Q: What sequence folds into this?
């Protein structure tokens, strides 16, 4: 059965800290891995990763995929209160179906 | 360009009542999806429609039906609501022909079944 597991499930940090969110997966016929940020509304797209070892970067956020060890990490440096959200990882199989992890709830305190 | 829209935003039902959640997208996407989101469980796929005229079950289809009315619209029906269906429901769409797998989400419907 296809499975995506995120850790930790929740995390509390202070502004300025760096955080690393983890996503491991067991999915047959892997096509890509997506990261979303969800505040109090719909998820918004952050990154799509298809190749191992190539870092995707957007401002203070970056992500990398390891297809051999079947995981991805999402890094956020110099965290701000506006980074508080649920971060969702999803793996897409060859049929185009998304399998989501449970999400990591990040809370950044001032 | 509104993207993905959903109605209603909030709904309270009594056990046994029925209702239909509406979803529409204006991005000319072929594929549309219905998810439910519950605390600690992430997003789970209820039904999806890979193209107009086709629908398929997802991970948690029991208690739901769907209709792909046309390319733009994909509705989710609860025939006899149960408290276990209290959740936030998201509709999403994408175009599998495009190189990106990104799905675009609607704003969600918060449903409470008493």
A:
């Amino acid at each position: 059965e296809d499975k995506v597991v995120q850790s930790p499930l929740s995390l509390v940090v202070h502004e300025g800290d760096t955080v690393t969110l983890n996503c491991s997966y067991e999915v047959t016929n892997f096509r890509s891995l997506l990261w979303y940020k969800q505040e109090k509304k719909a998820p918004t797209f952050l990154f799509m990763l298809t190749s191992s070892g190539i870092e995707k970067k957007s401002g203070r956020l970056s992500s990398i995929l390891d297809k051999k060890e079947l995981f991805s990490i999402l890094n956020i440096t110099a965290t701000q209160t506006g980074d508080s959200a649920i971060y969702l990882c999803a793996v897409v199989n060859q049929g185009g179906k998304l399998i989501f992890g449970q999400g990591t709830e990040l809370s950044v305190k001032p | 360009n509104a993207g993905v829209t959903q109605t209603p935003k909030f709904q309270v039902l009594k056990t046994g009542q029925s209702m239909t959640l509406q979803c529409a997208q204006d991005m000319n996407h072929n594929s549309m999806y219905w998810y439910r989101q519950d605390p600690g469980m992430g997003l789970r796929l209820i039904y999806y429609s890979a193209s107009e005229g086709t629908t398929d079950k997802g991970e948690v289809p029991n208690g739901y039906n769907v209709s792909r009315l046309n390319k733009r619209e994909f509705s989710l029906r609860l025939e006899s609501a149960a408290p276990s269906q209290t959740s936030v429901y998201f509709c999403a769409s994408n175009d599998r022909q495009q190189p990106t797998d990104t799905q675009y989400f609607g704003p969600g419907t918060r449903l409470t079944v008493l």
In short: Chain A is about 0% helix and 60% strand. Chain A has a mean pLDDT of 93. Chain A touches chain B through 22 residues (CB under 8 Å).
